[in-house]
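INFO  loader      accepted 1 record
INFO  loader      residues=301
INFO  predictor   begin
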Amino acid sequence: MKHFYILLLLIPVFIFSQTLVDESFSYPDGTALNSTANWATYSGNTPGQIIVNSGQIVISDSQSEDVEAAFLTPNITGDIYASFDFSVADPTSYSGTTFSYFFLFKPLSSNSLRARVYIAAFSASGYKPGISSGSSTAEILWAQDLSYATTYRMTVKYNTTTGLSQMWIDAVLETDTSISTTTASTVADIDAVAFRQASASPDQSITIDNLKVATSFANTLSTDVSDEATFSIYPNPTSTDIVIITGMEGSKKAVLHDLMGRVVLKTTVNNRLNIAGIKTGVYLLEVTSGDKKATKKLIVK
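INFO  predictor   done
INFO  writer      dumping tokens
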């Protein structure tokens, strides 16, 4: 009987750290997102508008297709987290107040759209993302302007019981600075994550990459390219000259490729990789140790 009770105690810990969606958009250029195994069009007049290019997608107010990815485990309740890299293009004209949400959680069986994320304020100096739990306008905005054409990592949380949502920018800990809604919008459970396109003013064009949805904050930070990856990179995304490689012991060969396949760095390291001088962008880091080889995306800010 003792072993039976221990097993019951361990099961909730495992469930709490579930990964629900892990999407790096690593498809050939020109692939319609709704043609892949993970995604489907759920709304909009023109399916197939969201196209993969250089391992990323672009959400635009000039298109209407909305897409969703079903969770690996359906009917999730409690806390749900999503994290993704995003960059907003400068609209050049900043007039207008028609702000459209572009990201959300939802049940597959309904349009109960929760944790709606907006770009909700534009100016020449930058923009502010915002969030609502279920309303059609952002309830709260990020306090500081973010820069156009700069990649950030957004983390979003929604709780089905409280009906409240939370947002972080470039966070590495759940205790980092965030904004939270106070107006509740509950739903029984969540089965999918979605991207939405709708008319907006000013114009909006948002590049998205490295989406991960999980039932814990920590599980959304990884940006694996392959399930066979056997190392970790920290911090990632990074704005530092040194990144730490863990998970492969001893000396190892590290090769950094840009998305065109060109080698931009080749060296031997133990666990500290010096990337000083590497330009801002998305790269593939290949690490080899003995007969083990793995590749992960590295985002340099």
